Amino acid sequence: MKNILVVMTGGTIGSAARGGVIDVSEKAGGELIERFRKETGERDVQFHVIRPMEMLSENCTPAHWRTLITALDGAGMAQYDGVIVTHGSDTLSYTASLLGYLYGGLGVPIVITASGAPLADPRSNGVRNFAAAVALIKNEGLPGVFAVYENSRSVMDVFLATRLMEADLYTGDFSGFGGGPFGVMEGGRLKVCAREGSPPLDALKAPRPQLRAPRAFESGVLAIAPYPGLDYTLFDLSRPDVKAVLHRLYHSSTACATPGRHALAEFIRRCRERGIEVFVQSVRGGRDMYVTAHEMLQAGAIALPMMSFEAAYVKLCLAVNQSELPVREFMLRPVYFEFVE
Prior knowledge:
The two termini are about 40 Å apart. The strands form four sheets. An eight-stranded mixed beta sheet has the order 4-1-5-6-7-8-11-12, sandwiched between helices. It has two domains: about 200 residues, Rossmann fold; about 110 residues, Rossmann fold, CATH 3.40.50. By secondary structure, it is α/β, with parallel strands linked by helices. It is built from nine helices and 16 strands. Helix 1 crosses helix 4 and helix 6 runs parallel beside helix 7.
């Protein structure tokens, strides 16, 4: 008999539709396990359920992360054979990264999952996703933090938590930074996808130190995405709550260098004058760089290794809310497979 902790946080997998409006429902959590038992016939698993919050994940803030962390730390996760976190799909990739950073070294399999529609909707993949999470824990027992989600082609993808990227707006499919999922679930077993940049199973099983979660969890991070015409003078750097900047780059590791209000390099210099570090996601190593990339680095941008935007944002939120390491050192030190080499 396997003992699994189920942590329900709301989201579509914990919601119901009434009068054309989808919202969280207290009954949906119990319904998930009932439907799982009925559809799979699985009786060799015992679930312990906690509900630290009930929210639609688009409403998630770092304060909710703090609530989730407190609940997980208080639940004694190490006593279970595994942990399943049910969550909304909108911000699934952010919370997955958080769990990867904080609990990747726990030695217990932790799986986060969601649903594309409420459980009563025939289009819902929620029960199948939950069943895949159970199977990953029960049949593999692989330590680490993962996300599972059935894509629009009915393939059950398995992602490393810190490599999960936001779902596609049209298909609703998730993707993995670096080219695809870590593996897929087939017949209740994990089939690892051999891919350059994916860690070997031995690396997942190796002991690793755990990060200490910050007591207070405020964002403090200004996140910026590039687009033609981005005007950096619109950002108010005088606010004391701006502790660091994360700037996503175009795929060529570039951003605008046209002199004036559109130049990233000039914005970086303004930030440095106020003691604000600017991290850019991400810069490709081992090859020639465009002159525009040279300009931002010469201005003082801190280049992050190849990693997803979500993983970079969550890591920077952790970095600015801790005091053990300088923020720069924290960001450049690998934690849980977030860097794709």
